[in-house]
Amino acid sequence: MKYIIAILMGVILLALTACGGGDGSGGGSSDDDSSTPPPITIVEPDEPDDPTTAQDLVVPEGFDYNPVKPGTLSVDISGFSTQRAQLSLYKQFSEDNAGNYRAHYASKVVSVPLASGKVDFDFNVSDSQKDLLVEIWFYDGSEPVKRVISVNDTSLKL
Q1: Cα 142 from Cα 120, distance rounded (Å)
Q2: What is the mean pLDDT of residues 18-29?
Q3: Strand partners, 108
Q4: Which one, out of 26, 53, 97, 110, has a CA that is 20 to 30 A from the CA of 136?
Q5: Residue-averaged pLDDT of the chain
Q6: Distances from the Cα of 117 to the Cαs of 35, 84, 109, in angstroms?
Q7: 158 contacts 82 by C-beta, under 8 angstroms
């Protein structure tokens, strides 16, 4: 059995070497144009004479690079309640099918106490922010008052 396998391997090896290696030394056609592919030419893009620099940039008049926008809010709920309360302002929130708002607590912008139902405060948000959620929590355990305001609103009155 070993001899048969050895003989078969020898025959296969001879058959493979007899075919020629494709080096043009025999066993194949003698066409010259199929042996060497034409060279590839790489075209480099033209370099501009004067490269663009930061000094060449034109910025419109009044353009602001600062993505942070300051805001101010004056809240007066004294007509609704003067009891002890805490106000929280959120950038991110969601609304369910029933129209109830749910704050994303990690997005809190500010939290301030209300004195006699009033408070004024400043805050910062990104210039892409559109709406904010105001939550006013009362210490008696009642449900908070929730209102959505525009980032451009400066007052909230209940």
Answers
A1: 23
A2: 56
A3: 90
A4: 97
A5: 85
A6: 92, 8, 20
A7: no
Type of residue at 122: D
Query: Are the CB atoms for 74 and 155 separated by under 8 Å?
Result: yes
Structural tokens at position 97: 């099918």
DSSP structural state of residue 18: H
pLDDT score at 143: 92
Measured CA to CA in angstroms, residue 32 lies from 23, 27, 28, 36 at distances of: 12, 14, 11, 8
Domain residue extents for the chain: 68-157
**Which tokens belong to 45?**
């893009």
* Nearest to 115, CA basis, from 145, 79, 146, 84: 84
The four Cα atoms 93, 96, 98, 99 give a dihedral, to 10 degrees, of 20
Q: What CA–CA distance (Å, rounded) separates 109 from 147? A: 15
Q: Which CATH number fits domain 68-157: 2.60.40, 1.10.240, 3.30.70, 3.30.530?
A: 2.60.40
pLDDT digits (tens, 9 = 90+) for 54-92: 888 888 888 878 899 999 999 999 999 999 999 999 999
Give the predicted TM-score (pTM) of the model: 0.61
